[in-house]
Design brief:
Elements: E1 7-9, H1 12-24, E2 29-34, H2 40-52, E3 55-60, H3 70-75, H4 80-89, E4 94-96, H5 100-103, H6 122-125, H7 129-144, E5 148-152, H8 156-168, E6 174-178, H9 198-216, H10 223-234, E7 240-249, E8 263-271, E9 274-281
Parallel strand pairs: 1-4, 2-3, 2-5, 3-4, 5-6
Antiparallel strand pairs: 7-8, 8-9
The protein binds pantoate.
Length: about 280
């Protein structure tokens, strides 16, 4: 059966009315929050959402409060016509496309107690980033009231932080972590990849390569050896400037000291002026 036309709502009220009506008819709602510039990673989330829920809502909102660099916010890609065209071809039923004033009508102070995880890894380099992320995700969750929300593993720390926020506010939603989607080369898909030149695309492969190497050597070497080796590969030439390469416990993202728990290796690095992140589950 042909999919109904994609519905596009720009206000919380219109979206809530539509979803309330569907919920009254026992429909479940799956939610994929995004900042647009949609790629196959996003569409894999939409596909998984379609398997689990009746109505699939995708939001596109470039959230100003999670950018600590105004230039990064200004240049963030916004190919909205292209995104809508692609969404119409996907299983997505509803696009929520609010303006900034719809999500932030008044100036508001926000601070959620996210604990140590907020300041680890990404948190050291992007001060306030996770407060901004949780602020907007809370607003989106309150509006959509979805049964499930889908997030990619590439942003694993974001997933952990959102999980913490959901527990903190007792939000009745199930978060689903979905595998990272990669280019054939191994590069993790990201909206930021469009900034990379042909040469930088090649250099960016070092991130996934070093993660794969760490996984291959996981049983053979100590955690210290694995980290030192990865970092020295990343810093070998000038094309990449790593912020960190860390091996952490999966549950709380604390630096791992032993191999007896589920562990994850995470990396962040600049390729030219583009900052990329990636990770791999080790055991
Ligand atoms: O991962 C993203 O695209 C964003 O951080 C999110 C979750 C949509 C919040 O703005």
């Amino acid at each position: 059966m042909a999919k109904e036309q994609l519905k596009i709502f720009t206000t919380k009220k219109e979206l809530s009315n539509y979803l309330d009506f569907n919920r009254r008819n026992s429909k479940t709602v799956g939610f994929v929050p995004t900042m647009g510039a949609l790629h196959d990673g996003h569409f894999s989330l939409i596909k998984l959402a379609a398997k689990k829920s009746d109505i699939i809502v995708c939001s596109i909102f470039v959230n100003p409060t999670q950018f600590n660099d105004p230039k990064d916010l200004e240049k963030y890609p916004r190919p909205i016509e292209e995104d809508i065209r692609k969404l119409k071809l996907s299983s997505c039923n509803v696009l929520f496309l609010p303006e900034t004033a719809e999500m932030y009508s008044t100036e508001e102070k926000w601070h959620a107690d996210l604990g140590e995880i907020e300041n680890a890894l990404e948190g050291q380099y992007r001060i306030g980033h996770y407060q901004g992320v949780t602020q907007i995700v809370k607003k989106l969750f309150d509006t959509v009231q979805a049964d499930f929300a889908f997030f990619g593993q590439k942003d694993y720390q974001q997933f952990c932080v959102i999980q913490k926020m959901v527990r903190l506010f007792n939000i009745p939603i199930k978060l689903i972590l979905c595998p990272t989607v990669r280019e054939k080369t191994g590069l993790a898909m990201s909206s930021r990849n469009i900034y990379l030149s042909e040469n930088q695309l090649k250099n960016a492969l070092k991130l996934s390569e070093v993660l794969e190497l760490t996984k291959r050597n996981f049983k053979l070497k100590s955690l210290e050896q694995l980290k030192t080796e990865a970092f020295s590969i990343l810093t070998k030439d000038d094309d990449i400037k790593p912020d960190y390469f860390e091996i952490c416990t999966m549950d709380d993202l604390k630096p791992a000291t032993m191999k007896d728990k589920p562990l994850i290796a995470l990396v962040a690095a600049y390729v030219g002026t583009t900052r990329l992140i990636d990770n791999i589950i080790l055991n």
